[in-house]
Design brief:
Blueprint lengths: L4 E3 L4 E7 L3 H6 L3 H9 L6 E5 L7 E6 L11 H4 L4 E5 L1 H7 L3 H18 L15 E4 L2 H22 L7 H14 L3 E6 L1 H5 L3 H7 L7 E7 L6 E12 L8 H4 L7 H15 L5 E11 L11 E3 L5 E3 L7 H13 L5 E6 L3 H7 L5 E4 L2 H14 L4 E2 L17 E2 L8 H10 L8 E5 L3 E2 L9 E2 L4 H12 L1
Parallel strand pairs: 1-6, 2-4, 2-5, 5-6, 9-10, 9-13, 12-16, 13-17, 14-15
Antiparallel strand pairs: 3-4, 7-8, 8-10, 11-12, 14-17, 18-19
Helix pairs in contact: 5-6, 6-11, 9-12, 11-16, 12-15, 14-16
């Protein structure tokens, strides 16, 4: 997607005004502007075009609050196809907004403009042109574009149909990302997974003609703090032999949403050159059905050595993750963060637009919550309630992969993953929807990055 954010200035202005200050602003405007806005019954909500005596456009855009990341909404699609610049002077004059808040507002408006211009049009014969936003602050433009491009990458990966987004396609994307930022890329494929002791990744993906893989990207100074990101890359989830019904299978191209999140986050970290040693692991597989599919009741020894009894083949994401998480712990990083479209239970608890997270470190959890508030990217911590480990007890193996009851399903899934984390390693697990069921300002229906900005903000504040 061509960026909707460009360098420079423009003749067309978007005047940003707080709704509470609209009447004060209006009273100071030219009489013609006052008469025009009154004649069209504009009441200081939303946006309107003001008449102009020259060829330039003047847009009045009223917002209820600055406490909203998606300030630009869908203006890039709604306004005439011109290049605009933002005028923040009314916020200072009528709203007493300080310079730091003004700069933050400019950044949020720019990013949300770029995200509002997003359209997944790879499979369309035509796509609509979008209005552009000019920014004369090169540092702000660079950071805003980096943020937009990283979220666009996440959205594009999720939106791409499974026919074009299998483990080998994820591998190509990850390899290109490593190459673009001078990182290294490697992969373990098919039978090699068994040879190198990743038995659960292999078991989940062995029924597919698309061989399962463990993908690895490494970037950054070897002496910098080590951070490992782990992503669930189930490129399509039929449910396996515990097959999903059609309505639950319909959007399962998005089951690699965790992988899309860590790749988008990795791109942002590298583009912004955060001073960390980054390692990204993506466990990529298709959970398909064939004669050699893994079965309910099978017992498989994991990379860590724990035996896992398969209660449900549709609880496959945690199986591929646990081998990857054990590998992640082997290097004793300062922090492991995984993203996964793991449970419907988390969606029942929090809805589709609020990602849940689990954490075994109080200081890290508090830092994430603070960063989420700072950057207006809401997340919600759920408990690693240890008593529920009883639900994962097996009569025949070290653990079940899934509790027999659906109650507390997000928690029992996280507790399963925790079994593969070394006690001394700080770890965060995000359980995300990765999909917008409804269109919201700057967030169209389809693939979505949830919690990505919060995690980036935390890493930036902690390490930069």
């Amino acid at each position: 997607m061509r960026s909707a954010l460009i360098s420079g200035q423009a003749q067309n202005n978007i005047i940003l005004v707080l709704e509470d200050n609209y009447k004060d602003w209006l009273s100071d405007q030219h009489n013609n502007d006052q008469l025009w806005l009154e004649s069209i019954k504009f009441e200081g909500k939303g946006h309107s075009t003001l008449p102009s005596e020259n060829n330039s456009l003047k847009i009045i855009c009223c917002i209820p609050s600055l406490n909203n990341f998606f300030l630009a909404g869908d203006l890039a699609k709604q306004l005439p196809l011109h290049t605009y610049q933002i005028d923040l002077s009314a916020l200072t004059h009528y709203g007493n907004v300080d310079q730091e808040t003004l700069a933050l507002t400019h950044f949020r408006f720019a990013v949300s403009w770029g995200l509002g211009a997003y359209e997944f049009s790879q499979y369309k014969k035509t796509s609509k042109e979008k209005a552009l936003l000019a920014i004369d602050d090169e540092s702000l433009l660079s950071e805003a574009n980096n943020m937009v491009e990283s979220i666009v990458l996440t959205r594009d990966l999720i939106n791409t149909p499974a026919s074009d987004m299998m483990p080998e396609d994820l591998a190509q994307t990850m390899q290109a990302l490593a190459s673009a930022y001078e990182g290294s890329f490697s992969e373990i494929i098919g039978q090699e997974l068994l040879d190198q002791n990743y038995p659960l990744i292999h078991a989940v993906g062995r029924a597919s003609v698309h061989e399962p893989r463990l993908l690895e990207l490494v970037w950054g100074d070897e002496d910098a703090p080590a951070i490992t990101l782990v992503g669930k890359g189930i490129c399509f989830d039929s449910g396996g032999l515990n097959i999903k019904t059609g309505n639950f299978m319909r959007q399962m191209k998005k089951d690699m949403g965790g992988a899309a999140h860590v790749l988008g986050l990795a791109k942002l970290i590298m583009a912004q050159n955060l001073p960390i040693r980054l390692r990204v692991l993506v466990a990529a597989a298709e959970n398909a059905i064939s004669g050699n599919a893994f079965r309910p009741g099978d017992i498989i020894e994991s990379r860590k050595g724990l035996t896992v009894e398969i209660d449900n083949t549709d609880a496959e994401g945690r199986l591929v993750l646990c081998d990857a998480l054990d590998d992640a712990c082997s290097e004793s990083p300062e922090l492991i963060i995984d993203f996964a479209t793991l449970t419907g239970a988390c969606r029942v608890a929090l809805g589709t637009e609020l990602p849940g997270f689990f954490c075994n470190d109080e200081e890290v959890a508090a830092g994430l919550n603070e960063s989420a508030l700072d950057c207006l990217d809401p997340i919600w911590r759920l408990p690693l309630h240890q008593a529920y480990n009883d639900m994962l007890k097996s009569h025949f193996a070290d653990t079940l992969n899934s509790a027999e009851t659906g109650f507390g399903g997000a928690i029992t899934a996280a507790l399963y993953l925790e079994k593969f984390i070394s006690n001394e390693t700080p770890w965060v697990h995000f359980d995300v929807m990765a999909w917008n069921l409804r269109g919201l300002p700057s967030r169209p229906v389809g693939g979505e990055a949830l919690g990505l900005r919060a995690v980036y903000e935390y890493l930036k504040q902690r390490f930069a």
